[in-house]
């Protein structure tokens, strides 16, 4: 039987990748993707039957999205930091243009224009603009440090304002909050003067209050979060019932009921399906995997001597961790309702491809390179 192994003297592209990539992060991502497929298989057939399509419609589509996503993540993770920067710049320009196009040609769904059609598929450009923006911003902030006269901070701010302005016009306040939080983490790591960080934080708080008073759907979600009797909390109430019904060990695969009545059981509320069918133990295992990936890659980034890798990588870690936290927080009703996928778990083509794009760049940036960081070769 032939086996595929790489020795430390293998100078092929894949061989060098194998000995420099964080293999523990790869293992954790593999576990996450596997659990995502299991949960999609558990949650989506009931949703498919309810809307009148084949029971395994969403499962097949998720696998169809997963194959190119894994391929893209692997290919991108082979890149060096300069290639990652160039790819992110191109992706940012294209995704920002597509984001603007949603305002003109995007389909209006629930009062928002967030999707554009590409052939027979629908694409959500905001999913791709997030990782691209954070890498471009990391590059601009790094250039500001390398060349004191370069207006990297101003350009980073301009890129941020361009992005969130279009998001607010859609409107998509949730993605705006996520991008703002990612950017804030990046600015903090980049060592901007504390007064600047505080001013930007104050502007963010003013923005939240402004959205509350100017955007009715934002006000409705916050009101329902603070006072459950202020409006319809159907999905949140059913999700909480699912967690209580599942208990410690769950009702068993296929035995859950929440997926039969929740419209978004296979997407935004798949964590509740996990809680009902597999119990608190499975939910804690999911949390542990997310935490492991975030803490391991964050520790790697904080050991980095290249400012671009540090800023871009930290921002990408923040995106991954914050998105998971927001999704779980909404399911557990510790955050106001927001439609946001659970990374590599929820069903969704745009989300899966964009997360693979971002994680591929993060794996590429976290690879061990001679003369950078304090780690030796990963073991």
TrEMBL record:
Protein EC: 2.4.99.28
Record GO biological process: cell division; cell wall organization; peptidoglycan biosynthetic process; regulation of cell shape
Membrane topology: Multi-pass membrane protein
GO cellular component: cell division site; plasma membrane
Primary subcellular site in the record, as a coarse category: membrane
Transmembrane segments: 24-43, 63-80, 87-107, 149-169, 181-214, 278-299, 308-332, 344-365
Catalytic activity: [GlcNAc-(1->4)-Mur2Ac(oyl-L-Ala-gamma-D-Glu-L-Lys-D-Ala-D-Ala)](n)-di-trans,octa-cis-undecaprenyl diphosphate + beta-D-GlcNAc-(1->4)-Mur2Ac(oyl-L-Ala-gamma-D-Glu-L-Lys-D-Ala-D-Ala)-di-trans,octa-cis-undecaprenyl diphosphate = [GlcNAc-(1->4)-Mur2Ac(oyl-L-Ala-gamma-D-Glu-L-Lys-D-Ala-D-Ala)](n+1)-di-trans,octa-cis-undecaprenyl diphosphate + di-trans,octa-cis-undecaprenyl diphosphate + H(+)
Keywords, ordered alphabetically: Cell cycle, Cell division, Cell membrane, Cell shape, Cell wall biogenesis/degradation, Glycosyltransferase, Membrane, Peptidoglycan synthesis, Transferase, Transmembrane, Transmembrane helix
Pfam families cross-referenced by the UniProt entry: FTSW_RODA_SPOVE
Domain of life according to the entry: Bacteria
Similarity section: Belongs to the SEDS family. FtsW subfamily.
Name assigned to this protein: Probable peptidoglycan glycosyltransferase FtsW
The organism of origin for this protein: Zavarzinia compransoris
């Amino acid at each position: 039987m032939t086996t595929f192994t790489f020795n430390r003297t293998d100078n092929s592209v894949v061989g060098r990748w194998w000995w420099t990539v964080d293999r523990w992060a790869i293992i954790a991502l593999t576990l996450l993707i596997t659990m995502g497929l299991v949960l999609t298989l558990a949650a989506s057939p009931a949703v498919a039957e309810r809307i009148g399509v084949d029971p395994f419609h969403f499962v097949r589509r998720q696998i169809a999205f997963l194959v190119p996503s894994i391929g893209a993540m692997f290919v991108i993770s082979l890149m060096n930091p300069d290639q990652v920067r160039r790819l992110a710049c191109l992706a940012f320009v294209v995704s920002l243009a597509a984001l603007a196009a949603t305002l003109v040609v995007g389909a209006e769904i629930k009062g928002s224009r967030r999707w554009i059609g590409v052939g027979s598929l629908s694409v959500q450009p905001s999913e791709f603009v997030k990782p691209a923006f954070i890498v471009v911003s990391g590059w601009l902030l790094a250039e500001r440090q390398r060349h004191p006269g370069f207006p990297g901070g101003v350009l980073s701010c301009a890129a941020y304002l361009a992005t969130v302005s279009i998001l607010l016009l859609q409107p998509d306040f949730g993605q705006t909050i996520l991008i703002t939080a990612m950017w804030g983490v990046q600015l903090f790591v980049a060592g901007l003067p504390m007064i600047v960080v505080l001013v930007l934080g104050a502007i963010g708080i003013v923005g939240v209050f402004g959205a509350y008073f100017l955007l009715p759907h934002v006000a409705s979600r916050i009101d329902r979060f603070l006072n459950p009797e202020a409006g319809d909390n159907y999905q949140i109430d059913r999700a909480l019932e699912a967690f209580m019904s599942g208990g410690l060990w769950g009702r068993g695969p296929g035995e859950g009921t929440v997926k039969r009545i929740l419209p978004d059981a296979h997407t935004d509320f798949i964590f509740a399906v996990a809680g009902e069918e597999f119990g608190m133990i499975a939910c804690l295992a999911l949390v542990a995997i997310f935490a492991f990936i975030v803490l391991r890659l964050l520790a790697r980034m904080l050991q980095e001597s290249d400012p671009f890798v540090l800023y871009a990588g930290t921002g990408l870690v923040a995106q991954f961790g914050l998105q998971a936290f927001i999704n779980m927080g909404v399911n557990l009703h510790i955050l106001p309702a927001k439609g946001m996928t659970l990374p590599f778990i929820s069903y969704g083509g745009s989300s899966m491809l964009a997360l693979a794009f971002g994680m591929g760049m993060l794996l590429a940036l976290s690879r061990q390179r001679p003369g950078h960081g304090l780690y030796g070769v990963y073991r």
